[in-house]
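Hi W., the NAP complex you wanted:
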Amino acid sequence: MKALYRAKPQDGVWWITGASSGIGRGVALEAARRGFRVIATARRLDVLQELAREADGLSGHIIPAVGDISDADGILHLVAQIEADHGPISLAFLNAGTYRPVNAHPFDAPAFRMMFAVNVGGTINCLAAILPLMCGRSWGQIALNASVAGYIGLPRSSAYGGTKAALIAMAESLKFDTDACGVTMQIVNPGFVETPLTAKNDHPMPFLMPLDKASKLICDGFETGGFEITFPWQLSRILKFLRLLPYSIYFRLVGRATQG
Ligand SMILES: NC(=O)c1ccc[n+]([C@@H]2O[C@H](COP(=O)([O-])OP(=O)(O)OC[C@H]3O[C@@H](n4cnc5c(N)ncnc54)[C@H](OP(=O)(O)O)[C@@H]3O)[C@@H](O)[C@H]2O)c1
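Structure:
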């Protein structure tokens, strides 16, 4: 097995998807503070341009580019263009995603399809563009942004949690191959972080973390290179413990705790 690769500023640029808001935006700024050049992509160019201006004066910088992760051909073209214009992508943080709570009845099939198309299908489109390049040169670092909601089925999370469980399983499985070709595969499993996405929640969010703190922890995790980056540790450990329980106890416990 090759040594674990960790991106350094001189190696190339970072590519962050979903960088116009929330975690992607926070990590882009933190990376620029740490001296990295970041290609920040999302669908809203005006917001990305504002972000690039906010990074003025930091030791690294942020370059905005439009990219809809659900457009497979568009993402292939975007990645080729990034590398042609700015050099190799040393780290890809595949972060873009979306969330909507759903119920069994009424069953909102379009919401399920939309979340699977963006969170899973979009991430696959990004992997299809970047993996061949990184594996071809035998170095690179890729992190998928999943969620602790992917550990186990939580109430109202059958669509979102399903997409995040898929990403966790994908990253675990891909790691066997990427290790062999010198590419570091990581999974980011945040709990609740203060972003526009969680602002929609009307339920309690235990251990809700400020965005700055979460962004630093993610960048620290990229530097150390361990497979899983998860926080806050309290929520992550509680959910990991719950998934060890027999289903009969799990459903009773979580059902009671989240009633209403
Ligand atoms: N906040 C949390 O507590 C939390 C916890 C666990 C995991 N996560 C995960 O973290 C990631 C970011 O979440 P967030 O809280 O930062 O949410 P957010 O503030 O809503 O940001 C979502 C980002 O994804 C982008 N995006 C959405 N659809 C896209 C598409 N089709 N193509 C390209 N970009 C797209 C959005 O940009 P445009 O609209 O400009 O395209 C935006 O930049 C998500 O994958 C989410 O599931 C969040």
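The first strand starts at residue 13 and ends at 17.

W.
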